[in-house]
Design a protein that fits this description.
- The protein is of the alpha/beta class.
- The chain has one domain: Metallo-beta-lactamase, Chain A, CATH 3.60.15.
- It has eight helices and 14 strands.
- It has helices spanning 2-9, 11-19, 84-93, 114-120, 203-214, 237-243, 251-259, 269-276; strands at 47-54, 59-66, 73-77, 97-102, 125-129, 138-140, 145-148, 151-157, 166-170, 181-185, 188-189, 192-193, 222-225, 235-236.
- Bound molecules: the ligand N[C@@H](CCC(=O)N[C@@H](CSS)C(=O)NCC(=O)O)C(=O)O.
- Residues 57, 108-109, 186, 192, 194-195, 227, 261, 263, 266-268 line the site of ligand L3IBWBLD.
- It comes from Cephalotus follicularis.
- This is persulfide dioxygenase.
- Belongs to the metallo-beta-lactamase superfamily. Glyoxalase II family.
- One of its GO terms (biological process) is glutathione metabolic process.
């Protein structure tokens, strides 16, 4: 909560401090998918947005930056260790200053790129929820805001896939991108949802999280999940409220579906979970 409030109240100050006093983070080089900016309001020009894909785990990483701000502060959501060099190259090519590497939760199927990023780019702060029980520079809580330039993400607790899952939602307001964008991690997938059979998972909680924290957003809010296994890239709240084959059911039916998924455990689970509890590297924070 401490750090969260810090971000809330003094986001610009934080950025200034990072840039001047601590002489922090700077980027490195190249590539990723070149999706256009998806927002349409007058604030469109401010947000640079890229959806990046890691094929072995079918993970999406998201790059967001305020390109109207002189520093072009940027953040990555759910970076993967294998694609860190690609992501950092892109950030460098676009002239952005990476300030945050954040996770929606402790992933079980791949190693987060957060620790590696911190070892390669000085000053980047790692972020994860306090409820995850993981190590990171900033432990966020529901209601916190993560600011980058004049833009921000709001933090919503969406437990169910894991106990510490959060959804990051772009800010509400005329100076923030419209429609809004929700980065749902594994809580809500396109026409699916995260499994609930390990890491403190609970189908009851997931059902409640989606209905209370995601389906209450405006229907045109874009849904950007952490994975897709079928080639989908984006959905909307309205679309999922109509067509999600799990979350459109009543709670009892949903629980039955989740009990009978019969998925095998992720291949990387025994390596990924312990690594991700410490940002993906054994104690990178103390070295950074
Ligand atoms: N086969 C993959 C793991 C696939 C998997 O279990 N995906 C998770 C998200 S990553 S923990 C999930 O929640 N899937 C829900 C679904 O309905 O598919 C591997 O071995 O890594």
């Amino acid at each position: 909560m401490l750090q969260l409030r810090f971000i809330n109240r003094q986001s610009l100050l934080v950025l200034d401090n990072l840039c001047t006093k601590k002489g922090v983070h700077f980027t490195i080089p190249r590539n990723g998918s070149q999706m256009p900016i998806t927002t349409t309001s007058s604030s469109t020009k401010k947000l640079l947005f890229r959806q990046l894909f890691e094929k072995d785990s079918s993970t999406y990483t998201y790059l967001l930056a305020d390109v109207s701000h002189p520093q072009k502060p940027a953040l990555l959501i759910d970076p993967v260790d294998k694609t860190v060099d690609r992501d950092l190259s892109l950030i460098k090519e676009l002239g952005l200053k990476l300030i945050y590497a954040m996770n929606t939760h402790v992933h079980a199927d791949h190693v987060t790129g957060t620790g590696l990023i911190k070892s390669k780019v000085s000053g980047v702060k790692s972020i994860i929820s306090k409820a995850s029980g993981s190590k990171a520079d900033l432990l966020i809580e529901p209601g916190d805001k993560v600011s980058f330039g004049d833009l921000f993400l709001e933090v919503r607790a969406t437990p169910g896939h894991t106990l510490g899952c959060v959804t990051y939602v772009t800010g509400d307001g005329p100076d923030q991108p419209q429609p809004r964008m929700a980065f749902t991690g594994d809580t809500l997938l396109i026409r699916g949802c995260g499994r609930t059979d390990f890491q403190g998972g609970s189908s009851q909680q997931l059902y409640n999280s989606v209905h209370s924290q995601i389906f209450t957003l405006p229907k045109d809010t874009f849904i950007y999940p952490a994975h897709d296994y079928r080639g989908f890239t984006v959905s909307t709240v309205g679309e999922e409220m109509l067509y999600n084959p799990r979350l459109t059911k009543d709670e009892e039916t949903f629980e039955g579906i989740m009990k009978n998924l019969n998925l095998s455990y992720p291949k990387m689970m025994d390596v990924a979970v312990p690594a991700n509890m410490v940002c993906g590297l054994q104690d990178p924070i103390s070295k950074a």
